[in-house]
Amino acid sequence: MQHPENDKAYKGLTVNEGIEQPSGVNPYFRRKARKRLLSVGEYVEGILKGDTTVLSQAVTLVESVRPEHQAVAQEVIEKCLPHSGKSIRVGISGVPGAGKSTSIDVFGLHVLEQYGGKLAVLAIDPSSERSKGSILGDKTRMEKLSVHPKSFIRPSPSAGSLGGVARKTRETIILCEAAGFDKIFVETVGVGQSETAVHSMVDFFLLIQLAGTGDELQGIKRGIMEMADGIVINKADGDNVDKARLAAAQFRNALHLFPKPESGWTPEVLTYSGFYNLGVKEIWDMVYRYVAFVKRNGYFEHRRNEQSKYWMYETINEHLRDSFYHNPLVASMLPGKEQQVLHGSLTSFVAARDLLDAYFRQLREKQ
Ligand code: GDP
């Protein structure tokens, strides 16, 4: 290479030739052929055989936003549906630091040991959209369970709205059940809306709480407490035992003020220590007692039917929303309308109507 500085016009300055740089790309690297998508039949066959590799691949399809993936995924789900449903689904919620991962590790080992079968741990984490990747359900957080041959751990799907994320988790439950997983845990962060989503897909909703501040009841939203079928106070160990017991008593009192749940089951409040594995058996005795109770009185079936209905409407809503916001005309009009609303030159209602009118007009014209 000819350096301009080596020209005679430059005095007193020469630049040495550099050495040739090695290629930044490994010349021996060969791109692996892209993995072929399996056929619907192959997915279904693999799943029904309990092949977790095929199951993982199918879940990836469920989570994919590509229409061709979604088409295959929906067919796989439909074929798996008759083989699903035969499980106990438990939602586990608690604020970050409540001890969810420590507990799920211990809970999982306990139920596998005590009741046999296979366990899938899924998660719903609405924040994963922002942080691009969920921490919930992460294998590394559940050290023992992640290497257990009878467990399947899958982090939260990360793309889309909470409704979308939740729908994918619900579809994943179907695939896991078809693959023979008869125990499903769905984990979520105890911060609000995601509880409702989890509640709408599980048979038992377990709320993990901590004792400590003395006024813990204030921090927890009434709605979440009302959803709980069981409240468990974690970290009841060492100096914390008394505080945990006191908190449990407060929760019990608070629960008395709520109307009796539709299930006819009075939510129980227990204390335990996930870390020291104390009181874990009692929690699962309670969950199984609940399941026997609601299977006897018909509420188990009723809740599952209601959930199916809920998901039908959720899916419709999600598709309508997507169709609306992905419509190019709507997308092009939105920023302008938003500005007009912000500047007060248009009311929210008129702006919304303009957009909806434009959307529906276009739909009609397409027909
Ligand atoms: P997560 O954010 O809800 O998943 O909570 P983690 O399971 O990561 O636990 C948060 C912290 O609490 C960790 O430092 C754990 O070691 C600790 N921890 C979890 N369970 C217990 C328990 O039963 N007793 C005590 N003392 N500490 C615990």
Highlighted features:
367 residues; alpha/beta; Rossmann fold; 3 domains; seven-stranded parallel beta sheet; 7 strands; binds guanosine-5'-diphosphate
Task: Break the fold down into its secondary structure elements and pairings.
Elements: H1 40-49, H2 52-63, H3 67-80, E1 88-94, H4 100-115, E2 119-124, H5 128-131, H6 143-146, E3 151-153, H7 162-178, E4 183-189, H8 193-199, E5 204-210, H9 216-219, H10 222-227, E6 230-234, H11 241-256, E7 268-271, H12 280-297, H13 299-325, H14 328-342, H15 348-366
Parallel strand pairs: 1-4, 1-5, 2-3, 2-4, 5-6, 6-7
Helix pairs in contact: 1-3, 2-3, 2-7, 14-15
Bound molecules: guanosine-5'-diphosphate.
Major sheet characteristics: 7 strands, parallel
Identify the overall geometry.
globular
CATH topology of the largest domain: Rossmann fold
Helix segment tally: 15
CATH superfamily caption of the largest domain: P-loop containing nucleotide triphosphate hydrolases
Helix content: 40-55%
The stretches of 5 or more residues where confidence is low (pLDDT under 50) are: none
Based on CA atoms alone, the radius of gyration comes out at 27 Å
Strand elements, count? 7
What's the CATH class label of the largest domain? Answer: Alpha Beta
Would you write up a description of this structure?
With 367 residues, the protein is α/β, with parallel strands linked by helices. The protein folds into 3 domains: 36-82, Up-down Bundle (Single alpha-helices involved in coiled-coils or other helix-helix interfaces); 84-297, P-loop containing nucleotide triphosphate hydrolases (Rossmann fold, 3-Layer(aba) Sandwich); 327-366. Helices cover 51% and strands 11% of the residues. It has 15 helices and 7 strands. The protein has helices spanning 40-49, 52-63, 67-80, 100-115, 128-131, 143-146, 162-178, 193-199, 216-219, 222-227, 241-256, 280-297, 299-325, 328-342, 348-366; strands spanning 88-94, 119-124, 151-153, 183-189, 204-210, 230-234, 268-271. A 7-stranded parallel sheet has the order 3-2-4-1-5-6-7, with helices on both faces. α11 (241-256) links the parallel β6 and β7 (268-271). α1 crosses α3 (67-80) and α14 (328-342) runs antiparallel to α15 (348-366). The radius of gyration is 27 Å and the shape is globular. The mean pLDDT is 87. The structure holds guanosine-5'-diphosphate. Guanosine-5'-diphosphate is lined by residues 94, 96-102, 234-235, 237, 273-275.
